């Protein structure tokens, strides 16, 4: 309600200032015909001006807001992998019987080009992952998930995470697997 009051006050002040300027113009030139021509011309253009400002500014603000959300989301995903996800990936990848086929591709070098990243990314997308469940120490996995459950819960509480559905679903599944025990 407070934000609407200042907008109403500003609108009233601007209308009063406009009327004062028109009055000064009339007092100097004594030409109401000229004032009315420009007044109606200005009023007619207001609709076009509002449309242009609304569409352009709305679009710019949406692009800016989306960019900020993606930046925050990327930070959250980075935090996840630096504190939790990388260890989890290592834990599961060690139980992949075919890991030797791609192991050398998983080591990122400082001098990699964008093309190198794309090539490895395509190769990993085609890779058929499998896990030998007998190789997994389930007690160690449960302990790891229990230790990280507070971190995961705080991460899931962040509303920015909802922007990335597949990541959120997997994070919820990890948290759910821990809370079901």
Total helices: the number is 5
Order of helices and strands: HHHHH
User: Mean pLDDT, nearest integer?
Assistant: 86
**Major sheet details:** none
Distance between the termini: 48 Å
Are there runs of 5+ residues with pLDDT below 50, and where? none
**Estimated radius of gyration:** 30 Å
Strand content: under 5%
Structural class label? mainly alpha
Helix content: over 70%
Number of strands: 0
Shape: elongated
List its salient traits.
181 residues, mainly alpha, 76% helix
Walkthrough of the structure:
There is one protein chain. It is elongated, with a radius of gyration of 30 Å. It is mainly α and 181 residues long. The chain has five helices and no strands. Helix 2 runs antiparallel to helix 4 and helix 4 (138-156) packs across helix 5.
Give a brief outline of the structure:
Helices cover 76% and strands 0% of the residues. The protein has 181 residues and is mainly α.
Question: How is the topology of this model organized?
Answer:
Elements: H1 2-29, H2 32-93, H3 114-126, H4 138-156, H5 165-179
């Amino acid at each position: 309600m407070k934000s609407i009051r200042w907008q109403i006050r500003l609108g009233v002040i601007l209308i009063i200032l406009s009327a004062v300027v028109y009055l000064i113009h009339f007092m100097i030139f004594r030409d109401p015909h000229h004032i009315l021509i420009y007044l109606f011309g200005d009023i007619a253009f207001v609709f076009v001006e509002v449309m242009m400002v609304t569409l352009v500014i709305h679009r710019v603000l949406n692009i800016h807001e989306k960019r900020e959300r993606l930046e925050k989301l990327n930070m959250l995903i980075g935090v996840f992998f630096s504190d939790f996800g990388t260890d989890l990936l290592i834990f599961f990848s060690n139980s992949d019987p075919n890991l030797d086929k791609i192991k050398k591709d998983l080591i990122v070098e400082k001098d990699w080009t964008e093309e190198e990243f794309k090539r490895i990314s395509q190769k990993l997308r085609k890779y058929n992952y499998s896990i030998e469940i007998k190789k997994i120490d389930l007690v160690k996995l449960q302990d790891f998930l229990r230790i990280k459950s507070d971190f995961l819960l705080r991460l899931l509480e962040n509303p920015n995470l909802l922007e990335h559905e597949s990541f959120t679903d997997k994070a919820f599944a990890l948290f759910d697997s821990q809370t079901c025990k």
